[in-house]
């Protein structure tokens, strides 16, 4: 059922027939994530409400995101929602895949070199070493992504930035095929096998049950 | 006690580094237990430019920034280019957090081809460190080519080093904890009427 809100608040312009989405499904509200690139205040806010915290985890070294997630986990426990390990964490990441890792680098380099974010700074090699960006074979992406768990603890959601740097649609669709066929099934299995006891799975709508698996 | 020395000289050997070394040795004479770490910005030029583009320091530059921010005192020496500090010198301080040098004792010094640029120290370096809330020693040392063979430079070096040694012995203002988080209730309370 759609609900239209009309009214005026203290902190924003008046709402006229506004429908906020997503809506609750079967009376269950959607799980709320708070995403942050650099603000520890957002980690604190997510912890206060016991909601999920998503760190964008691209373009910068892991230390910065470790700090944000460390604050979130600690404050999540402080507010009595569970142990730090039970806090609901999501991470970004960026990958470019090819069955042959040298080909992945060869194909991605012109996009990297001319990207508005990456271009004309450190090299592709330097940025893949210093930031979460991974350019290589499915196995390399799997291995790199599994290290995220070592850096941040067990976490519930992994989002990959797949259409950055001006990649054409056809390439992005091919990338999604490789990701879906060769990377994600392995990551689901490996993350699930490694998850410590007592750490919750990713939050999903009850109708999806346990099959709404993580990663 | 730790002293960081930042030299933005570009040639090898460099008169800027030479001045930095003279100031350092005058400081060490007064504070013999001090540990000195010299940072040659020339070696970090590409990393500094990359940090401007990416927003984060590569590991070598991060080590240099940590050395400067954790030191008990700083000697900062730049060549004067086009009436001011060199772009490399400024860029290094641009990539350091603007609160990170608050309360830090700093000795400023510069080199140039002519004495006519000496006040760049007072018009450029001193206000920059004032903005960063560093404690800048009253004597700034300028060395033009002609000063190296003339009377006066050694006295100014000694005086500046004495002032820095005095500042380094004093208690520094306590800086806020980096990871301090404002509790969310407090943020909410500030919004309530």
Automatic annotation (TrEMBL), chain A:
One GO CC term on file: cytosol
Entry protein name: Putative FMN-dependent luciferase-like monooxygenase
CDD domains, per the entry: Flavin_utilizing_monoxygenases
One Gene Ontology MF term: oxidoreductase activity, acting on paired donors, with incorporation or reduction of molecular oxygen
InterPro entries, per the entry: Bact_Lucif_Oxidored (IPR050766), Luciferase-like_dom (IPR011251), Luciferase-like_sf (IPR036661)
Origin: domain of life: Bacteria
Keywords of this entry: Monooxygenase, Oxidoreductase
Limits of the Luciferase-like domain: 3-151
A Pfam cross-reference name: Bac_luciferase
Tagged with keyword Oxidoreductase: yes
Record's keyword annotation contains Oxidoreductase: yes
From TrEMBL, chain B:
Entry-linked InterPro entries: CE1759_FMN_reduct, Flavoprotein-like_sf, FMN_Rdtase-like_dom, NAD(P)H-dep_FMN_reductase
Record-listed E.C. numbers: 1.5.1.38
Source organism of the structure: Nonomuraea dietziae
Residues in NADPH-dependent FMN reductase-like domain copies: 1-148
Key words of the record: Flavoprotein, FMN, Oxidoreductase
Protein name in UniProt: FMN reductase
Taxonomy, superkingdom: Bacteria
Entries under Gene3D superfamilies matching the protein: 3.40.50.360
